[in-house]
Design brief:
It is built from ten helices and three strands. It is mostly helical. The protein has a three-stranded antiparallel β-sheet. Helix 1 crosses helix 6, helix 5 packs across helix 6 and helix 6 packs antiparallel against helix 10.
């Protein structure tokens, strides 16, 4: 991914995920931290502070889902170290990029807005797009940005995020058009 695309991906993720130094349950009940980093089990949390982070993961995981994210912060009091959170974010970015490149080998050649929107779907919903998002995946493989714009929304997802993805794909239609 180009530095321009990576910067745009980071900006979009921070916009929609924010950057929380505490663990909370996302709308799907997954323990999450930092810039929307899903922590699926204690071992994912361990890299953020050893047993202390693992204990906090257990604590947050046992709390009821559906609360405002800051509520979880008030319950546990745990805070991740900025350097550790950033390192985990960078590792997850690299893994997501590798997963996407395995599915879309020409990803780096796509218009930057298409890369950013695709990355956002993968970050938000999981990077196995070919398996879980067959219609979107087919549109991406065909570079059909119009169809991708129609297939990129998440059910129950925030309208602003869905609209941003759609707009990103649609902007590829005008950027790909020949200049007059």
């Amino acid at each position: 991914m180009t530095p321009e695309a990576l910067s745009a991906v980071r900006a979009m993720l921070v916009t929609f995920e924010q950057n929380r130094p505490y663990m909370y349950l996302d709308p799907g009940g997954v323990v999450t931290v930092g810039i929307g980093i899903a922590l699926f089990d204690c071992s994912d949390a361990f890299v953020l502070g050893g047993e202390s982070a693992c204990d906090n993961w257990d604590f947050v995981h046992a709390l009821p889902a559906g609360m405002v994210d800051v509520w979880y912060s008030r319950q546990s009091g745990w805070r991740g170290q900025p350097d550790a959170l950033e390192a985990l974010f960078e590792r997850r970015l690299a893994k997501t990029e590798a997963d996407l490149l395995a599915q879309f080998p020409d990803l780096a050649d796509w218009p930057v807005p298409a890369q950013v929107a695709t990355y956002d779907v993968a970050w938000n919903c999981g990077s196995e797009l070919l398996h879980h998002w067959p219609h979107l995946s087919a549109a991406l493989k065909a570079h059909d940005w119009q169809e991708a714009s129609e297939q990129c929304a998440t059910r129950g997802g925030p309208a602003m995020r869905n609209d941003a993805r759609k707009a990103a794909f649609l902007s590829c239609l005008t950027s790909a058009a020949p200049s007059a």
